[in-house]
Amino acid sequence: MTGHATLLVNPASAKGGSARVAGEAVRLLGAAGWRTAVISGDDAAQSLAAAREQVAEGTDVLAAVGGDGTVHLGVQAVAGTGVPLGVVPAGTGNDFARMLGIPRTDPAAATRLLMDGRRRTVDLARCGERWFATVLTSGFDALVSHRVNTLNWPRGKARYQLAIALEGLRLRPFPFRILLDGKSVEQEAILVAVGNTAYYGSGLKICPDAAVDDGLLEVTLLRAAGRRQLIGLLPLLKRGAHLGHPLVETYRAREVEIHAPEVFAYADGEFAGDLPLRITCAPGAATVLVPY
Fold first, then answer.
1. pLDDT above 90 (res 3)
2. What is the band of 156 on the pLDDT scale with cuts at 50, 70, 90?
3. Which of 113, 201, 208, 226 has its CA 20 to 30 A from that of 163?
4. Cβ(87)–Cβ(288) under 8 Å?
5. Between these two residues, 157 and 10, which has the higher pLDDT value?
């Protein structure tokens, strides 16, 4: 079977790794008889507008070639349309691909999924007018995400580790108020994470019980802690073994509202806005091409 694939390439990496991976994907798709279009605008807004145009015109698949930021752009274009999203990982974190078992180090295998992958219906989360696919973070972890975006070196997980170390030097708690399906929780906390999926930060399993198709969001709250306690928690966070720790509280809800003064949030590694924010789960909002 042949078709038409649109490749959405990370606009911040048009001349880097994402562009090289996209070029190889175009060659593989072309060899199989597929027509392709490549989108890499001057900025995210231009790329998104072009992606939405391709979806409206009936592309068979929109493929995000990049990391979770590119996936974030892709879901804005495909949410609620029925057009499947493919993912060809070429970014730093690739946490959405990690959650769904999409090959993260084999672009050819990921590209083949665009042609013969299994369609899987997944939930998305909505925050204001934006969708997100993985985790929304606020507090310390949002500060880490902001720091990651300012660093040009090192690459991959080491960049997140350096950002954690730098932000850990000024660690402080925030007075959070959280509404979980209308029920209020007030707690001084280092961070609050709302997960549609389990992973963020290049493999940190912050919301380990989050499922991408259960119609619920998982909320992880880390109560006020010192630097030494946070450092001790990091190995547990990496493997999702922090549930039950006395500093950790977890909740599940369909709608989450987060309040805290002078605190902002990131979702899919992209700036989501200043608090307060309301996040809702949108069951079955997207279709993703995944391995059988």
1. yes
2. low
3. 208
4. yes
5. 10
* pLDDT for the residue 91: 83
* Helical residues (DSSP H) of the chain, grouped into ranges: 17-31, 44-56, 68-78, 95-100, 107-116, 140-150, 157-168, 227-239
> Taking 90 as the threshold, does the pLDDT of residue 114 lie above it?
yes
Which value, in Å, is the radius of gyration of the alpha carbons in the chain? 19
Task: Establish whether the linkage from the previous residue to 154 is cis, with ω within 30° of 0.
Answer: yes
Measured CA to CA, the distance from residue 246 to residue 242 in angstroms comes to 9
Pairing of strands 35-39, 4-9: parallel
Pairing of strands 255-259, 183-195: unpaired
What distance lies between CA 97 and its chain's CA centroid? Answer: 9
Q: What six digits make up the tokens of 207? A: 């919301």
- Cα–chain center distance at 270: 8
CA dist 245 and 119 (Å) reads 37
- Cβ atoms of 144 and 191 within 8 Å: the answer is no
Three-state SS at 237: helix
Q: What secondary structure letter does DSSP report for 13?
A: G
Q: Which two tokens stand for residue 208?
A: 């380990």
What is the per-residue pLDDT across 161-207, written as a single tens digit (0 to 9) for each?
788 788 777 788 999 999 999 999 999 999 999 999 999 988 999 99
- Using an 8 Å Cβ cutoff, are 212 and 197 in contact? yes
Instruction: Tell me which amino acid residue 191 is.
Output: L
- Smallest CA-to-CA distance from 121 within 24, 232, 211, 16 is with 211
Phi-psi region of 267 (alpha: psi -120 to 50; beta: other; left: phi over 0): beta
